[in-house]
Structures are given as structure tokens and as C-alpha cells.
Amino acid sequence: MAPADTEKDHWSAETYSASASFVPELTQTVLRYLSPCPTDRILDIGCGDGKFTAKFLPAADYVLGLDSSKNLVDAAIRDYSSLANAEFRVVDCRFLEQETAVVDGSWDKVISNAALHWILRDPSTRQSTINAIHACLKPGGSFVFEMGGHGNVPEVHAALIYALVRRGVPVHKAREAGPWFFASETWMRNALQKAGFKVEKLEVEYRPTKLTTDASGGLAGWVRLMGAQFLELLDPVQREDSVREICEVLRSVVTREEDGSQWLGYVRLRGIATRVN
Ligand code: BEZ
Q1: Which of 71, 162, 201, 227 has the most CB atoms around its CB within 10 Å?
Q2: What is the pLDDT of residue 6?
């Protein structure tokens, strides 16, 4: 999930779990689309700490999980690599085409959950990553994915940009610091077809998502973890001021009256695409 090894690794399995434990949990639909079978060799792009991978691992022949965060891959190795059919490697999937041992047309399925919006952030490597996923698959193999779609988490996205602008960061710089690309259905369909995929299914779902109630999670934990690349433009004192301000500004937007629970406006873009030849 995190960018290249020259860049800072923002991730830790513990903070991810405190602020985003719902990510591997809300995956019934994408797992149904994956429909793993006992002969499947499956490549998991952006596997993170392996908690999502572990949900389909028992139903597959072999799974290789790739993620650019060493911290998360280490957690996946610690928790799951004792299972004979699982391996995890640190790979920055923006440059997947360079992994010639993986991009070999041998995989039955490629899966990606909640990772492509990070991996596709850089416009210069977007299409090459999707081309490489296509080249990983056997003819007839399928690519199943779920990611943030256009308009994902709009309230906190706007609040993060504005928190920087209020502290003197030019708006174009604040936008450029954004670590996410929330693809529209049209963009994704075009990119998949350009890579040679047949698009079998592509759907958008508005899925408001309840934040965790962990002491170190909730909205503040989410903002610190997921918005780390935005906040890095500020000094440490300004960062914490911004987190407080964002939570205060968003309080009435995200809080449900009946029980005080806090929700973000997640939008999922989900699909199945097959390699035809
Ligand atoms: C998502 O899974 O949609 C997401 C996660 C972190 C930041 C933004 C979006």
C-alpha cells in the first residue's frame, strides 16, 4: 500500500487495525466474485497485513501477496506464512511489470482489495500497472478488485485539503500531496480494455462505513493514518492541530444522532475482468 522503499513507510499493522479493522471485514462481495477454488493460484495485489488474504487462502492452492509496505508484509509473514500455501513479498506494484518472476502469465486469478487507489495514485504508472496485472494472468484468468471509487470519503478528503490550505499550503500543493486516486467507472473500464481485458462486471456502491471506536482509532486515528501524506506537509504541532480541527469540523457531518457512531462516505468501485487470450 505504501509507496517505494525510498519513501517513508506510513503503515503499521497495529495502527491499521485500530483505525481500519473494517477494511478486511467488509469484503463479502469481492470474495464472492473471487470465488476461489482448490486449484487456484492467486496473486493478491496490495495484500497489506494479510488479513484479507487469509479469508480466501484456505480455499486456494497457493497465494502470493504483494505489498510495498515492509511493516505490513512483515506482519503478514508473521501471522500467515506458516501456512504452506502462502507467501508474502515486498513489491511496489506501481512497477509490477519489473517483477518478471511474477508477471509470467501463470496466475489463475489476481485479486486486489482496498489497495488500487494507493497504487494507481501516480498517473505515470497507472496504465502500466493494469497492463502488468493482465500479463500476470493465464488466458481465461480473472482480475477481481475493489477500490475507492470516484467521490470516495469526500468529507474527510476535502477537510484534509482545507486544513493544509488554512495553514498556508497552496491548494495545488495540498491536492498534489493526496495519496489516492479514486477512479470513476468510465476511467477504469477504459484502462482495463486498453490492457486487453474483457470487463465482465463493473459496479459502484455507496457504502457508508462505521469508524472504529478504539482509543487510538476513530476519526482522528483514520485521519492520522490514511491522511499521513497530506499531514506530512505540516510540522508536527500543526499536524495535531489539523487532526483536531478536522475532527471538530466533521463532527456533525459524520456522527449519527441515535448512538453517536461516526461514519465516512465510502464509495466502492468493484469489478471482474478476464484475460481473453
Ligand atoms: C478506501 O479503502 O476506500 C480508502 C482507504 C483509505 C483512504 C481512503 C480510502
Answers
A1: 227
A2: 54
Fold of 13-153+179-210+265-275: Rossmann fold (3.40.50)
- Distance from residue 148's CA to the centre of ligand 1 (Å): 6
Test site for ligand 1: of 16, 51, 152, most ligand atoms within 8 A of the Cβ:
152
Residue 2 scores a pLDDT above 70: no
Give whole-number Cα distances, 5 to 8, 10, 91, 131, in Å.
7, 11, 9, 22
Side chain identity at residue 139, one-letter code: P
For 130-180, the DSSP string reads HHHHHHHEEEEEEEEEEEEBTT-SHHHHHHHHHHHHHTT--HHHHHHT---
pTM metric for this prediction:
0.95
182 lines ligand 1 (CB under 6 A): no
User: How remote is the CA of residue 113 from the centroid of ligand 1, in Å?
Assistant: 10
For residue 250, pLDDT over 60 is answered with: yes
Asked whether the predicted pLDDT for residue 41 surpasses 60, the reply is: yes
